[in-house]
Amino acid sequence: MKYKVIGWTDYGNAGYPLNRHPYGNSAWRALVCELRQKGYRFGGDSHQYVSGGVPVLNDGTRLEYGMRDWGQAMAEAVYGDNPPPSAYMKYYMDSGLGEDELVMPKPFVDKSLILPAEELADEYTMKLTPQPFGLIQSGRKSVEARLCDEKRSLLDVGDTIIFINTESGQSIKTRVEGLTYAKGFSGLAKLCGLARLGCGRGSTPAQFAMDMEKYYTPEQIKKYGVLGITIKLL
Fold this sequence. Notes:
Layout: E1 5-9, H1 25-38, H2 44-49, E2 54-57, H3 67-79, H4 117-120, E3 123-128, H5 130-138, E4 143-147, E5 160-165, E6 171-182, H6 185-192, H7 205-212, H8 218-224, E7 226-233
Helix pairs in contact: 1-3, 6-7
């Protein structure tokens, strides 16, 4: 999703719907980018209790976090994407900051910048062999399992995926409805359900994991983890 922060409001302000996926790649990165570029510095308590402490994205939704997660976002804004493990504690509450360090945005949202969600969606292409392609096309498979590598880690709910049949070149367009993360494919099968993954009767999570290891090595799975992409035909 092509998210960016367009303003700031109050915690719990129902005038801006709560973003359903505040930890998604684009929402989180939009927040960190805004904090970094504008030089804002304030703790999780101000995020929750001070007017103007809650960011609003360009789809009109607001981002709300627990105090520890807010501290982590601030730490990434200040120290980079891989801050020291305890860096979030400085921004857990305002008491970790000196008076001269506290910088907050003003409570204002430019509503003219709010766009329909479909205009913010990113589009990706993925190749599929004929069998899983046909299952998605027929509606019998609603979750696609992949390695959660650099490309797949960019996916957000609302994005578009075009699947291409590796033999016929035929394509189908889908929308990402949900993302499920797991350490391995057996665990993913238990979380998502074998039927939704397109597995037939008698399949087991262990068998599904073995089948997926035809495409990904155990080393890759351990390094990246895996991802179940819930999709809807468009």
